[in-house]
């Protein structure tokens, strides 16, 4: 079982988007339909969703015109309106606007083993099980010689990824009291600009600080020289460094003390604390050079008190069903991703997809 892949041949943003939209047309439409269903169950009206999509498009055009143009190209190729593609890219912002919540979400581990050794990273990507067909792997070259490879969703400009400048990003959702329904720059576009433009943690953080956001997330930037969990919210941006042993773990609550005062996610999803404890308790294994062993060190199910590897409760509505849809690591030395379709409980040496 592998995720679909796509390599762009176009370098101009609108043309690149149109190529992707035409080649992945059915998947993008299905992803939009899946989010439309999710937003409806979460309490959003169609009129609200369209308005938020249009706001996201406007904010994106002001902050990153090339990325707004690329979204318009995707829409053209997929036979959609630009605001509909913006909705897919702004799904975090829309869910924050309707105060969506539920027990689930991602866990990220980064260990810096020491000078001359590459970072050891792995994360689970948890999302709603009815969207399990949304992920794809996308390679693009936004400028000559600079290649971006990203694990993302059909129609979204980026998520988890690496670039050939030696930087990669992991991605976890957060919630803050400052989150607002006045939709700002989508956090998925921040991840894309970081992958396009940054080679250091400091450059990645500067890009995050330049965006006016309405929803919260953490983008953990990793290079051969270091790492930082860039916590982003309307209340501000903070960079959480690794500890003295080079360990940097993140789940779905703020770690920066000032931003943590406005924490909203963990009050409804206390499992995030148990997941973080599990990661920290297994820091030695998570710092090993064998990727399969790192993934297996993540393994923990709900009965063990830390649902790092999630499985959906089919008795629940779609907005309360969570599944670990992917397990992902960054190979910064080679500028590639290692991806397993599903959670750590199904990982073997043979299930890794290299991209």
UniProtKB/TrEMBL annotation:
In what residue span(s) does the Peptidase C45 hydrolase domain sit? 122-343
* Annotated spans, Disordered: 1-22
Superkingdom as given in the UniProt entry? Bacteria
Where is composition skewed (Basic and acidic residues) in this entry? 13-22
Bias (Polar residues)? 1-12
PANTHER family, alphabetically? Answer: BETA-ALANYL-DOPAMINE_CARCININE HYDROLASE, PEPTIDASE C45
Q: Which NCBIfam families match?
A: C45_proenzyme
Protein name as catalogued: Peptidase C45
**What is the organism of origin for this protein?**
Nonomuraea longispora
What is the phylogenetic placement of the source species in the record? Bacteria, Bacillati, Actinomycetota, Actinomycetes, Streptosporangiales
